[in-house]
Design a protein that fits this description.
heterodimer, A: 224 residues, Gyrase A, domain 2, Cyclophilin, 2 domains, seven-stranded mixed beta sheet, 5 helices, B: 316 residues, alpha+beta, eight-stranded mixed beta sheet, six-stranded antiparallel beta sheet, 4 helices, 21 strands, 13% helix
Chain lengths: 224, 316
């Protein structure tokens, strides 16, 4: 399953699952991640899964590249039964105040804002990974007709809760952050909750998400 | 007195609670964080008789002005730091790093500046009372995680000392923060995205550390590093020390509070042995890279640890 393992610096392994990005390969990545997490291999300090890669960092005081690469290669990979993931429903308000890049998308995609949103809300999305900033989920795949590049000049501040689109992916900004994705709306719900230590992320890799539209009034009065 | 604490009369530029950081959370977007210069952080704690991973105060450039409230305390400052102790009877003592001092009620510690370096550390016997998030007090201001609600220390805050009436122990270390001529680098996973000429430039020319440098990353200016394959890669994990080359050709080095996912090609990774010294380089200073192999990097890390141990052996 892993096509190649190499070193990333002197204290990390770089596991390559190939170039393709799809649900099947990402599910393998997630399964591998769970196996490594359960493996109790000494010295591992972090495991970072993404679309089709896993980076494993380790403590150079405890282990080293030649040792840990063997342990990963020899790891018996069990299949973790993915708990029948429930569909997580996420409300989004697409009022013009929040849909910062809808007119840009209209120009690039050559379809109306209403059609863009209809297409967007008409689909379920798969969470490939979380990261960049705490709890930020990355989803796919957008309809072919909705795929646009990042902004030429990224925003210095993307508001917290923003829903961003780029190429085949979309995401949710869990914090105010710099970013270059096309913003089409904002969610009032807390995607990352640091006070929930054991389970701070609402959405995890492998989950399915369905977005639905709410009015500005509903957004303002939203109560979790 | 109910509690012993420092009253913050001036906060300084970037004053935060730090320890050795948090692990196993990259997959949800939370980086290691922790003290930037681990060696100086550890030395500070051990000098005042604390365990290695006890909460301490990290400051950058200009540190805080602190007024001690309590019967007595013992503190130390590590790094290359100019500071004074203002005793109650209006006597000013010039402070020396790597030497413990006692404090009495009303004494003030004025941390003026870091000298040709960025970070310094203040530790007290017994440590600070800092709330832990995922087993670490380390403040990551971007994610608002860590002690003090994940924020920098502000004027009028109270920095509470965990254990009262710690005995004052005079300790002193002879230590000079060694400088190195080159920052050493291992090839990154996208090394072949760059032309031979670009690689030659990267490993021979000087780069300048720009002012856009903080706990998240260090941006460099100098010759542009030309990419011959693609200026973007599929987004994937990042680790601290990775050198990314964005489309404008100016290298960015990931530091302790970095974003955990990124999509720019990785030309190289700073070796673990050189990280503490890298982060101490100030904006405006020059930096040169040297390519080393993995086995050499592993040996250099062992040597760096042995050197740290040698410094700490003076305490025995």
């Amino acid at each position: 399953m892993i096509k190649n393992i190499s070193n990333l610096g002197d204290a990390a392994l770089y596991c390559d699952f190939g170039k393709k990005i799809n649900k099947e390969i990402n599910s393998k990545v997630i399964n591998y991640f769970k196996n490594i997490k359960n493996s109790q291999i000494p010295g591992i300090t972090n495991i970072v899964p993404s679309y089709n890669k896993i980076i494993i960092t380790f403590d150079l005081n405890i282990t080293h590249f030649k040792k840990i690469i063997k342990e990963i290669q020899n790891l018996e990979i069990k299949s973790f039964e993915n708990k029948k993931n429930k569909i997580i429903k996420i409300p989004i308000c697409c009022d013009e105040e929040f849909a910062l890049d809808i007119s840009r998308l209209e120009k690039i995609l050559k379809i109306s804002g209403i059609e863009i949103l209809d297409m967007y809300f008409n689909k379920e999305y798969f969470c490939y990974m979380t990261g960049f900033i705490a709890g930020m989920p990355f989803f796919g795949d957008l309809d072919q007709k909705l795929r646009a590049k990042r902004l030429e000049t990224p925003r210095v501040r993307v508001p917290k809760g923003s829903i961003g689109l780029t190429e085949q992916f979309c995401n949710i900004y869990t914090y105010e952050s710099p970013g270059g994705w096309n913003i089409i709306g904002n969610t009032p719900i807390k995607i990352f909750d640091k006070s929930n230590i054991s389970n701070p992320t609402l959405i995890n890799p492998g989950d399915t998400v369905k977005f639905y539209k709410i009015t500005k009034e509903e957004y303002i009065n939203w109560n979790e | 007195m109910n509690k012993y604490y420092f009253e913050v009369l001036r906060a300084g530029i970037n004053t935060t609670y730090q320890d050795l950081g948090r692990k196993n959370l990259y997959h949800i977007g939370i980086p290691f964080s922790g003290a930037m210069d681990n060696r100086n952080y550890i030395i500070a704690n051990l000098l005042v008789g604390n365990k290695e991973n006890t909460p301490a105060i990290e400051f950058a450039y200009q540190g805080p002005l602190l007024n001690f409230k309590g019967k007595a305390a013992c503190f130390v400052i590590t790094g290359e730091v100019n500071f004074n102790i203002l005793r109650k009877e209006n006597r000013t003592e010039q402070g020396k790093c790597y030497q413990t001092y006692s404090l009495l009620d009303g004494d003030q510690v004025n941390i003026l500046s870091t000298n040709k370096s960025v970070y310094g550390y203040l530790a007290v016997s017994g440590g600070f009372d800092a709330e832990l998030y995922w087993n670490s007090c380390s403040v990551n201001t971007k994610a608002k995680i860590g002690a003090n609600d994940g924020e920098k220390i502000k004027e009028n805050d109270q920095i509470i000392i965990s254990k009262k009436d710690q005995k004052y122990n005079y300790k002193k270390l002879d230590h000079i923060n060694s400088k190195i001529e080159h920052i050493r680098v291992i090839k990154g996973t996208n090394y072949n995205y760059f032309s031979q000429e670009a690689k030659n430039v990267f490993f021979s020319k000087e780069f300048t550390i720009s002012k856009f440098t903080d706990r998240m990353g260090m941006r460099l200016k100098g010759s542009k590093i030309e990419n011959i394959i693609n200026t973007n890669i599929t987004s994937e994990g990042l680790i601290k020390g990775v050198i990314q080359i964005p489309p404008d050709g100016n290298p960015i080095i990931m530091l302790s509070d970095h974003g955990t996912i990124g999509g720019y090609p990785k030309i190289g990774v700073i070796i673990s042995a050189d990280y503490d010294r890298l982060v101490q380089l100030t904006p405006g200073s020059k930096i040169k890279f040297k390519l080393v192999e993995l086995s050499e990097a592993e040996t250099l890390f062992k040597l760096y640890n042995m050197e740290t141990q040698k410094i700490l052996n003076q305490l025995k």
